[in-house]
Amino acid sequence: MHFEISVYDEMGMICKAKHTRYIVLQHGFEKEVAKRIEQLERVI
């Protein structure tokens, strides 16, 4: 799955740049990433 928002991994590193698509589920943090995305979508 590809996301077009910035997502941070467990070390606080940016997995995704604003205008670049990254696969953010490569480390198996599906649930954590989903929570982060929900929080970011609320802000947006």
Automatic annotation (TrEMBL):
SUPFAM superfamilies from the UniProt entry: Thioesterase/thiol ester dehydrase-isomerase
InterPro entries: HotDog_dom_sf (IPR029069)
Gene3D superfamilies in the record: Hotdog Thioesterase
Superkingdom classification of source: Bacteria
Protein name in the entry: Uncharacterized protein
UniProt source species: Thermotalea metallivorans
